[in-house]
Design a protein that fits this description.
Radius of gyration of chain B: 35 Å
Number of helices of chain B: 26
Largest sheet of chain B: 2 strands, antiparallel
Oligomer: heterodimer
Helix content of chain B: 55-70%
Largest sheet of chain A: 10 strands, mixed
Radius of gyration of chain A: 23 Å
Shape of chain A: globular
Number of strands of chain A: 10
Distance between the termini of chain A: 62 Å
Number of helices of chain A: 14
CATH architecture of the largest domain in chain A: 3-Layer(aba) Sandwich
Order of helices and strands of chain B: HHHHHHHHHHHHHHHHEEHHHHHHHHHH
CATH class of the largest domain in chain A: Alpha Beta
CATH superfamily of the largest domain in chain A: Periplasmic binding protein-like II
Strand content of chain B: under 5%
Structural class of chain A: alpha/beta
Chain lengths: 371, 543
């Protein structure tokens, strides 16, 4: 027993000594947290594989826990043992983590790479730097796909968000996410509320009721989804005529799996996904995490990710570098949510509004669902 | 009566028995300790969150005390004293980044407070900077950390130091231990109480969290604001004139100069106009106690108001309905399991060994398959374009336009969960039936009983303990299920556990999740008690 302990201790010492020698003051192990699936694969190919190739001796472990990242980070923080180094979260979650003091504050100009032409990181990311802790990676959108073969005869394919609420012209089931966010905005938009007034209206009791009343009109024709993979599956099975999901999921269903699905970009809602670094890491691990993030969010790396998945890079300087899909060989630019042809009518997720109203409207939404 | 060694027999026997008990306890001690540490302690501490509410008084200690004299009924906003306390509390909280946590907590009760706390916390420096600039304009010695230190440091203020340190402990949850290298001088505490408190707060934070030296750093803006607050007290003006300690001249110069007015009510109204609305303060007052029934009330669709407990508005009532549904559907599932499982268990118990074994494997096979796989398989079977509907349409039983809706509703949950929980019914039933002697049935029949009577009067009563055990297992498992309802339940087939999971991992309202979980636990225990009264727990046999 004693011998094993001593042995273990000496090996551990030896290992840490080696890592210190290799990289000065940075730890050699890193746990990255992401969403799994094609998205994580794209991050692995574009960010972590080249990083490991450049930094010999660094090992990267992936954890597919981003969906519960906020709850888990809070639990880790309370237990006093943080096992993650860099965590991929949506911007709304990054804001919450920052609010709770669970994420490290980032000074974009100091800690992130400038664009190749010398533009500072802060200007390069622009408005996408939401909150003090969030390091943006991609712009994705929540938008609708529909079955091209199920469009009724003599009718144009749906190209207006209000077609979702038009059961007469476009009969069939719809798939909507089982949460108020996005759905209530679309409902108000199709109930005569002007785009710029949506959040003013939603902050009133009457406005919230108005949105739910509009959703009530299609209630019996809705299947509510909670995982991003549900809608493509429901579309492929012919269970629904149209449904909302993340644009990358629809791209994969259309281009990689050849499903008869069309994109209806109208009123797509932009959202951001990016990295945060947990607060309270040891200096060695924090240094490694910052080093990785500096590399992984530079202009070229962000453009590289678009080779594998149709999400727009968060840097302005990356857009011109977006090329072709790695295996399909098609141009990726027209499939980006930010492409001018797709972005004629868009929404940007309102972080401040939803941070305040999420719990309130969600309670009403769930009560409405349970009726 | 005496034992062989001469001690009374009773005492000797008692000692022997005690020794035996200790030995038995020692044998189970490792397991007991393990269960205690890994099961009981975490669960109890989690459930404890359902009443815990120290965050309000921990983050805004001064404000909460000052607020006690405010009358919510009056319709007026609290006095300047409350806002002054709020400024210093919030300033510290913002430095420690605790104010946003409080905002999130209060946002559960009053929508909008999250962003109000976040944005206000960001701008408090600016509020204090006005005073700092004014003071430094009069005498630039106040720009110097060493000057401040010389003036504030001394002896006799140990009580204040201890008190302020405890506040930081309550605020941050860290122990804040360590030597600060600074003790407020009793004279200054007497002369400038607000300033001494603010400076001590800053000194503790600077040394223990920022790991700097007090004398080498400039105090933060709140200290300057505190000095102005002190100087506005007319008594302080005369006391300063008589003061002869360190920095006396500089202080007298400040006291003589024109200072911006310390009006924190206006400052907060400037940051966010909601600060001067009574409903915000009502929320803070209602939730200022260290323990709250708020989460429990919320779990039964009620809410805490200044006038006592009130029903939530119609469009927010959810949980009672969900509790009822969870109970009701779990009962249906248990009943379906009995109906489907009983014949299977009977077959298992009565078939010849060889075929019974094959049947047993068929029962156990799904048991060994992942829950997610089984649930997803049901999705393929039940959906409208799924196997069952296709088959029915092909056979002509169902019209193509009116396919059955078998999932994304309660039907889906009942079908899938009955299937998943069936083995938990069959196995106890089987083990009980196996012990029923077949000669009893034969004896009954030989005495003239029909098949039905023999089953009803002889066989069935003996199998009841198996039904009891199976029902308890299935019901209790069903009540806590959430993956299957989430996948196939749609909107009217989800359980209370789905909301618990949502509050744990999505909304992060752990207090509410804990309250819902506690209620569920109590419900299960209550049902267990009822069951014991009716059937008797001794009648349950697991094998």
């Amino acid at each position: 027993m004693k011998l094993t302990k001593t042995l273990l201790a000496t090996t551990a010492l030896g290992l840490s000594a080696a890592s210190v020698m290799a990289d000065g003051h940075m730890s050699s192990d890193m746990t990255l947290v992401s969403w799994g699936g094609a998205y994580q694969a794209s991050q692995s190919a574009a960010y972590s594989d080249p990083y490991v190739a450049m930094n010999e001796g660094v090992t990267v472990t992936w954890d597919e826990s981003s969906a519960e990242a906020v709850a888990k980070l809070r639990a880790m923080n309370e237990a006093g043992s943080i096992t993650w180094d860099v965590v991929d979260v949506v911007a709304a979650d990054a804001l919450r983590l920052c609010d709770e003091g669970l994420a490290l504050e980032i000074d974009a100009d100091e800690q992130l790479a400038p664009a190749p032409d010398g533009t500072s990181a802060e200007d390069d990311f622009g408005d996408l730097l939401v909150g003090d802790c969030f390091i943006p990676q991609i712009v994705y959108s929540t938008t609708f796909g529909y079955r091209t073969d199920l469009v009724p005869e003599g009718v144009d394919a749906p190209d207006d968000i209000c077609d979702v609420f038009d059961l007469e012209t476009y009969p069939g089931m719809r798939a909507l996410e089982k949460r108020p966010i996005n759905n209530v905005e679309w409902a108000l938009l199709c109930d005569g509320v002007a785009k710029e007034d949506v959040y003013d209206v939603l902050s009133t009791e009457e406005g919230q009721e108005q949105a739910l009343a509009k959703l009530d009109t299609i209630r019996d024709s809705v299947i509510w989804w909670s995982a991003g993979a549900d809608t493509p599956q429901l579309l492929a099975d012919g269970e629904v005529f149209m449904g909302s999901t993340y644009n990358g999921r629809l791209f994969a269903a259309i281009e990689e799996q050849d499903q008869p699905i069309g994109m209806m970009w109208d009123a797509q809602v932009f959202d951001l996904d990016g990295w945060i670094i947990p607060a309270g890491l040891s200096p060695e691990r924090e240094a490694r995490a910052l080093d990785f993030v500096y590399f992984a969010t530079d202009t070229q790396r962000l453009a590289d990710q678009a080779k594998y998945i149709s999400y727009g890079p968060a840097r302005m300087s990356s857009a011109p570098l977006v090329g072709q899909h790695e295996t399909l060989g098609i141009d990726m630019a027209p499939h980006m949510p930010t492409d001018p042809n797709n972005a004629a009518n868009t929404f940007l997720y309102n972080y401040e509004f939803w941070a305040d109203y999420r719990d309130d409207i969600d309670a009403k939404f769930q009560a409405w669902l349970a009726q | 009566m005496l034992a062989a060694d001469g001690t009374p027999l009773k005492a000797s026997l008692g000692r022997a028995l005690r020794r035996q008990k200790i030995r038995a306890l020692a044998l189970i001690a490792p397991l007991l300790l393990f269960v205690l540490l890994t099961f009981v302690v975490p669960i109890v501490s989690m459930l404890f969150r359902s009443v815990e509410n120290q965050i309000v008084s921990g983050t805004l200690p001064g404000t909460v005390v000052a607020l006690e004299s405010w009358d919510a009924e009056s319709g007026n906003i609290p006095s300047e004293d409350v806002f002054q306390n709020l400024f210093f509390d919030m300033f510290n909280a913002a430095e420690a980044k605790e104010h946003t946590k409080l905002g999130t907590r209060l946002n559960y009760e009053n929508t909008g407070l999250a962003s109000m706390f976040r944005t206000s916390g960001r701008s408090l420096d600016d509020v204090g900077e006005v005073f700092q600039d004014a003071i430094e304009d009069v005498d630039d010695q106040f720009e110097d950390g060493a000057f401040w230190f010389a003036m504030m440091n001394g002896a006799g203020g140990e009580d204040l130091l201890r008190e302020r340190r405890e506040r930081w402990v309550d605020l941050t949850g860290d122990d804040m231990r360590g030597d600060v290298g600074f003790v407020p001088s009793a004279e200054i505490v007497e002369l400038l109480p607000t300033t001494a408190a603010a400076y001590t707060d800053w000194a503790i934070w600077t040394v223990i969290e920022d790991e700097e030296v007090v004398a080498e750093e400039d105090p933060w803006e709140a200290v300057y604001a505190a000095l102005v607050v002190d100087l506005e007290n007319p008594a302080t003006g005369t006391a300063i004139a008589a003061y002869e300690g360190e920095g006396a001249q500089a202080l007298q110069a400040i006291a003589a100069a024109e200072m911006p007015k310390a009006d924190f009510t206006a400052a907060f109204a400037d940051l966010d106009e909601d600060w001067v609305k009574t409903d915000v303060w009502t929320t803070i007052e209602v939730y200022s106690s260290a323990y709250t029934t708020g989460y429990f009330l919320n779990s039964v669709d009620r809410e805490l108001t200044p006038d006592g407990v009130d029903l939530r508005p119609d469009n927010e009532r959810l949980y009672i309905k969900l509790f009822g549904r969870t109970m009701w559907m779990s009962m249906i599932i248990t009943l379906s399991c009995i109906i489907l499982g009983y014949p299977v268990a009977w077959l298992l118990a009565n078939l010849p060994m060889k075929s019974a074994n094959v049947l047993m494997i068929l029962v156990l096979l799904p048991f060994w398959t992942s829950l997610l796989v089984r649930t997803s398989a049901w999705k393929v079977l039940l959906q409208q374009q799924g196997v069952i509907n296709e088959l029915l349409v092909w056979l002509g039983f169902v019209d193509d336009a009116n396919r059955l809706i078998l999932m994304n509703n309660s039907t889906g949950t009942i079908i899938a969960m009955t299937h998943i929980l069936l083995p938990f019914m069959i196995l106890p039933l089987y083990s009980v039936m196996k012990t029923i002697n077949p000669t009893y049935l034969r004896a009954a029949k030989s005495l003239g009983a029909t098949n039905v009577t023999a089953f009803r009067r002889v066989y069935f009563p003996q199998s009841v303990p198996g039904i009891g055990a199976g029902s308890i297992l299935v019901f209790i498992l069903a009540i806590g299920y959430y993956i299957t309802p989430e996948i196939v339940g749609g909107t009217d087939g989800v359980f209370i556990s789905n909301r618990i999971a949502y509050h744990i991992s999505r909304s992060l309202n752990w207090g509410l999740a804990a309250a819902l979980g506690t209620i569920l636990l109590v419900l299960v225990l209550a049902l267990y008690w009822v069951y014991d009264q009716i059937v008797g727990i001794d009648n349950v046999k697991l094998g």
